[in-house]
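Bug: token stream looks shifted between consecutive jobs. Job 1:
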Amino acid sequence: MAHKITASIRVTIGSVLFALASSAFLHLIPPSPIDRHLLRGSFHPYYQGHAYLIPVKYYDGPLDAAQLYEDDRPLGPANSSKEEIIDKGAGRFLFYRETERATNYFGPVLVFSTSDNTDPNTNGRKYHLK
């Protein structure tokens, strides 16, 4: 005895398959775009004082024109000396290409201090380069 599949059963099966395929596709879409300018990872204390160092993987502009932001607030002055960053802090930063073997990293590096000389690993703020 053969069973006939009615039109309403076909519509129900098609609707279920469409819903399953749609929900599977939605899981492939990232929840938000990746901010390539957000500095991720650990900020390493730079010898002493108020300075921290982080290698920068994604930056496509001229290093001396970069602007560092703490949340949405610009920091600076830019292109400060390492000594000023260590001694005074207060948002100073230097973005340069590392060529020394001491850091075991060759590429763009940011040495900076936070606006209030706190530890950027624990102060809850986000840092962006633009």
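Job 2, same session, no restart:
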Amino acid sequence: MISLNEVTARLARVESERMGHVDSQLDVLRLERDSLKTSSARLADQLTHARNETKQIQTRLEQEFSLAKQQLVEKENELAISNKQLVELRTRLATVQAQYTAQDTTIGKYLLNHIELFSIKLWHVSRYDSRTSAKGVPTAKKQNTVFRESSR
């Protein structure tokens, strides 16, 4: 049989080994805790940095959006003005074309009337010339030649 001292010594040794094992586990847990604290602090800093960066990006994007919105309003106003000017110019063009057509028609009628009158006069002159040349009176061509020679 085992004596009481041997059992006590064996228990003390087992207890000592367990305590050593527990102490080493405690050291490992402390190191792991410290590592987790460091990681947690680093992650908290990264999160704070990311939040600050997100706020800056959001502010910048809001400013860009506001600027783009203002530019859109300006371009829409310019487009409205351009469309209005286009309508005015088309109206002016239609008016000018109508005036031109009216003047063209009037001038055409005027020229047509004058051409008809000139044709009639020419016809009368040619009839007169043909009658007078038969009688021996100088024709219009001969009269112009005589007139030119006398004016020199």
